[in-house]
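Table S7 (text form). Paired inputs.
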Amino acid sequence: MSSQARIIKFGIFEVDLQSGELRKAGMKQKLAGQPFQVLQVLLEQPGDVVTREELRARLWPGNTFVDYELALKKAVNRLREVLGDSADSPRFIETIPRRGYRFIAAFNPPSPDPAAPSSANSQLMAVQSSAMQPPLWQRLAVGTAVVLALVALAWAVGAIGRYRVRAGNSHAPVRSIAVLPLENLSKDPNQDYFTDGITDALTTELAQIGSLRVISRTSAEHFKGTRDTLPEIGRKLNVDAIVEGSVTRSENRVRITAQLIDAPSDHHVWAKSYERDLKDVLALQDEVARDIADEIRIKLTPEERSRLAVAHPIDPQAHEAYLKGRYFWNRRTEPELHKAKDYFELAIARDPEFAPAYSGLADTYFYLSYVWGHIPPREGMPLSRAAALKAIELDNSAAEGHASLATVKFLYDWDFPGAEQEAKRAIALNPNYELGHHVYSVILAAMRRSDESVAEARKAVEVDPLSIPANNIYGTMLGAANRWDEAFAESQKALELDPNPTHLTMFRNRLADYYRRKGMTNEAIEEDLKARTAQGANPQQIQDIRNIYAQSGRKGVLNKELEAALKRWEKDHWHNDAYVIAFLYSELGDMDNSFKWIDKCIELRSTMLIWFYVGDTAWRKDPRFAEVKRKMGVHTWSSLLGTGWPADFFFSHNRSANVNCTAKTKTIWRDA
């Protein structure tokens, strides 16, 4: 190899590939090992993207359990440090987000080595140099000053490094963060539930920090496997920083690698790898969250630090069953909710003191009763309450149990002040808990506190911006507050979030309501037809509905829907259909039949009845509205709210007068 072939020059640097040296202006730099190997690989392909996979194959061949992502980032960071380069405005090494790196500087043209000076010239230069030197004391003084200046500079650079929160901008602290779905490095797709569970747990741990806005898991999930760059993701989620990383599970050990990235610049700020036994995974999650909080200089309250410091060992099988339960619960179809219930019960059987499993069970019974109707509310909701109370008994500092109890108190006990108390407690424990804001927003709407309701719904969207349920509730609360222009605008924006037909149906129905209120009949009809198309209606069905509109207007369509709902009722006696029938009668102006079906809802203890109180409905304008409140046992909340009396005092009669449980649920209620 010739001298020119083995030496590559760029800028003031030169790389000697044979000796493995990097020199800056002729001075050898401290760069060896993996950082130098990375530089060598990049120099072999100047201007081309070198993928992370290529670098892994070159630097860590055959290694199956190395956190090569972390090691690679450290190597690149060290290389940039020596080169004086920056990820923000690179001169030599450019980051290609989610792909790899590229060497972008031009090589200097080769030049012959300067001729060596003759012996005589060397002697003359030495004499001249000696004659020109200042006295020894001056050289010592200057040398000391230089050393002190370098020490001061090193201290300042170190201080900047220690206190830097955002790359290149110490005045822009991290106030918002998103945890992207961690990567499963176990090489087993069946372990995805475990990785998803760790992602969810880390998000929850960080979400408990009141001064930090943490994006909900459901919004971050949108970017799993995406090609979006981190700055693009940061813009879409409106966050300052992003946490990404990986999870590796090997028998009874788990390793988590977490990396903190400045979102606008894609600058790598911090990374660390953790490894523990599975029984200590809760403490491991807490440690990761504390380290991230320390790195971004978020000041934790004593209560927050205490919550992140207390984590007892857990039975690995109980934890695994819980993670599988949450994995299926997050899908929220009826079959998978039943799988979730089985796994939560298995976790409780393995560890009866594991509070999150009870909270998961409470949420599952709620969904099976309220959403799918597979379990009648009189059976499912008391089971949900019992599980929520047990979760709170075991861990009063966890927001999930309080939010679950707030849901039961609101939807089933019709205990509005008690529900508000639990919802506020959940939000205090986890200010970033989307479900807590979501539930509290509807509670406030039912209590006619419209401005507060809209504010809470907006908070839910802020922490879960890509969530369809959060955006739907926000639009609903705007409409309930008669802020229809804003509701219209939000519904139009939400239509862009997700093409899922069910979601499109909700938003298009709201747009149809808006047009009807504005007297824009044709536009309302078109939105209604679009909603039906999104829900699965075929072209012939759409044409049939269009014909009904033409012949008898909206009243004809409502009568057709009422006929279908009455048929469903005769077949299944589903409590949700009873409410739909009551609503359709009210829309048709038949208030006598509407209130008869409201009585049927009360008898069934339908969880849909809370919507009886939301917005300026036809029911509210009827004198029988007050009688319904009395029958439901909520007639005292408006007069006694704010007196300081316990919420249980207001509604203690519910538990004797309005509840007819099966033998099983009576036992659970008594025990709760």
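Next pair, protein 2 of 2.
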Amino acid sequence: MKKNYLIGIGGTGARVIESAVYLCAAGYGPDNLTVFLIDPDSGNGNLDRTKTVIKRYQECRKKLGGFCDPRSGKIFKTDIKIPGTKKEDEQLVWGIFTADAKDGDATKLNNMLGYNIMKDQAPGLSQVVDLLFTKEELDSQLTEGFRGHPSIGALTMSSAINEDKVFDKEPWKTFMKDVEMMTNANDIGVFLVGSIFGGTGAAGVPTFAHKSILKENPKAKIGELSKIALGGALVLPYFSYDKDPANEKKEKDAGKIFAKVEEFALATKAALSFYNEKELGFDQVYFIGDSSAYSVGGFATGKGEQKNNAHYIEIVTALSSFDFFSQPVTTKDKIQKKHFIASRKDDSISWDSFPVGRTSDDLTKQGDLKKSLISMTILSYSFLSYLTWCLKNEKDTEVQNAAWYNTLFRKFKNTDKDIFGAGNQENIKNNFVPFFKNYLYWLDSISSLHESGAAGSSEKIRLLKNNFLPTESPDNEDAPLPFEGFQASIIGNLVKERSQDMTMQDYIHKYINPTSQSLPDKDKKEAIEKVVELFCTASLRFCEDNHSVKKDDNNGKKN
């Protein structure tokens, strides 16, 4: 079976993988996906967020059993893996520097270049270095990222690849093992993602896209062909951040270098010119950007403070990788190269705006994507607002008299198939509740994008109706949701698209209870799989009845 590798480089790469995971959770993604990240800034807040969502995705999928089967599942279908031959060897992030490198002199550019020795022994060469790099660049701590300086990043990565036997260590070790196991051309799809207006992505994409590194690596060659089909997304400027002159001055006075919004366009022009001259091994490449430049939060130079809001361009970029992975594999000829353009009709963003393919035959996928995301939104909301309330109020008459409870769980009371059992409640609390909560925060942050310095959300982003989530950070997972319960919830009022103003109570009676009667093999399934399938199937039926999506025979509906 063809294997798919999605490699995110830098902060943008991490956020694209975050979006890819949420898309897979909604049931829209390839059957298998191995992911890892390249970033020297191991404490980056975006990186931590992506690590967490992958881990939770894997835990949720593990609890759902056969419901995640790619042939029939509706959510969590994609088998997402992290490289590593054993669980304890799994490595999500290649940090470029060796494990024993500390945030000290060893990881400063001047020491990597041997600058002080050079000044004594080869002063002419040190003068060339002085022409190429400023004092701030030479003194910058590279374990905090390359901060809009791809020349530094490219030098650092190339040195690490050539000197550190990178392919003998995780995550590259597992990747190369998979390459060696393959026997046909293009058996492994590799997709590189990074921005070209920053530092790490702009340095990493051309470094690993060079023919000699992956595409024409001796272990990947089959005659004149390669086992690797190499794709990539070069992400052009698409966001801004809220200016913070005082903090920027503080960082500058401390001698730190960082990317600046006003330099994004110039950096992009220089990067594209540079890429055009290099022997890159891409079979297919996507250029993705957005001129609206909505703000993704406040200014931060890196480390834990860098936690940008999600952006719809990251969804588009994740979808470009899925499009690449879905292309038919050819074993006799080189992969076909095509040129195409996708753009939205105007400057608004709706559920129908996301490009999902390259031909008219792919238009049905757009409806599938819309259905997947909206139904996952309804599932997450109803699960968090109603089911969590039920789990805290087991003895309430509302729960005891509920048709879904009596149909699916009453006969299993005090067994491991009882949804109110301590083990099942713990799994729901530790895995599904935080995952669904963060999914809603992810979508809500996209819907809440705004112009830099402006108050309020943009009216042009028409995904979710705003202000139904708390303003606190989703990192505070113990913070109560304002809609927990069911009496006041209006579930038909979540999506910025015409729908019924249906209360949660009406939703339970019209969708949850009837769906419980029709679940297949309901007595054979584990409690968590059964309750998630119940809420998932009900949300799909609600979506079919209230939004412009195709009805699915598997839900007991006619097309």
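The radius of gyration is 25 Å.
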